[in-house]
Amino acid sequence: MTNPDPLTGQQLSGNPVVAVKIDNTYFDVAQFGVSKADVVFVEQVEGGLTRLIAVFHTNLDQEVGPVRSVRTTDAELLPAFGTPALVFSGGAQGPLDALASTSVVNTSDLQTGYFRSDVASGSYNLHANLAEVVASTSGLTPARSIGFTFAATDARVAKGSAATEIAVTMQAGLTTFSWNGSAYARMRNGEAMADYQGDPQLADNVLVQSVVDEPDGTYDTVGSPSYISHTVGSGAVTLYRDGKALEGTWSRDSVDGTFSYLDAAGKPLPFKPGRTWVILAPQSAYTEVS
Questions:
Q1: Quick one: 184 exposed, middle or buried, by C-beta within 10 A (0-12, 13-18, 19+)?
Q2: Rounded-to-integer distance, Cα 65 and Cα 32, Å
Q3: Do 18-135 and 149-289 show the same overall fold?
Q4: CATH topology for the 18-135 domain
Q5: What is the pLDDT of residue 156?
Q6: Amino acid 46: pLDDT
Q7: Could you tell me the residue ranges of all domains in the chain?
Q8: Which positions ≥6 away from 196 have C-beta within 8 Å?
Q9: What CATH number is given for 149-289 in this structure?
């Protein structure tokens, strides 16, 4: 395909990029809109739990939620997309200050686009309409590549080791995927996950990116420290696609820079066109593959 989309490797979209902080601990009500994200990052937060950074670009006609608060990891990561919008529900002063020093557009004070859903309560009922958020936001730039090199086929894939079940544990947060013959289905308690709207959460690529995390000086209401997972630096990475595992390394030189994902021979890892989930796995995490 000539001139493919930089985030999916598929049909080019002229839409901007909107990232959304989405809760990943409350499952009494299913998440909204995650299945339509082009890229999803899983980040560790306080207490060893996880939260999602769902990045939307090709499809902005979405209700998403539950929307949660910002972390310093977001401020270091998201400038890789250029000038994206971030949908979130406030946060501690440290992460807010970190975000303010970046190119990311803070939409949390918008009077339109955010609303309270009646499907849940408390911290879990803030939702957003992405089309309304974008219509009320200025200064967003077109999507740019963050470092994914797409290839529908590649001889290296067949040579990779088999990987049909993937489980990444970050202290109190477990992220699992199961190869279904065409994509990796996100799993929970042995069952494939779907959005509230009924759409399955599927990944064409699952990337486990080894990162270093450290306390960022912020604490939650019970005294648990918040962590920043550093996405500037380098480390090991494993790309899972088509039921196979490909080993490599990642690097990124600056907050405004993009990623490099290379195999042992120094060639770009071949991402499959489609949706990608990236698990930012800190040094305390461990991965089980079968």
A1: buried
A2: 5
A3: yes
A4: YerB-like fold (3.50.90)
A5: 98
A6: 85
A7: 18-135, 149-289
A8: 29, 30, 31, 32, 119
A9: 3.50.90.10
pLDDT category, 221, cuts 50, 70, 90? confident
The answer to whether 253 touches 140, Cβ cutoff 8 Å, is no
215: which residues sit within 8 A by CB, 6+ positions away? Answer: 225, 226, 227, 228
With a cut of 80, say whether residue 137 has pLDDT above it.
Answer: yes
- Please tell me the predicted confidence (pLDDT) of residue 276: 99
pLDDT at 2: 80
Rg of the chain (C-alpha set): 18
Tokens of 32: 């909204």
The contacts of residue 132 (CB under 8 Å, 6+ apart) are 112, 113
CA 20 – CA 40 distance, rounded (Å): 9
Q: Left if phi > 0, otherwise alpha if psi is -120 to 50, otherwise beta: which for 190?
A: left
Here the tokens at position 195 are 């959005």
Its pTM surpasses 0.90: yes
Please check the confidence at residue 121 and state whether its pLDDT lies above 90: no
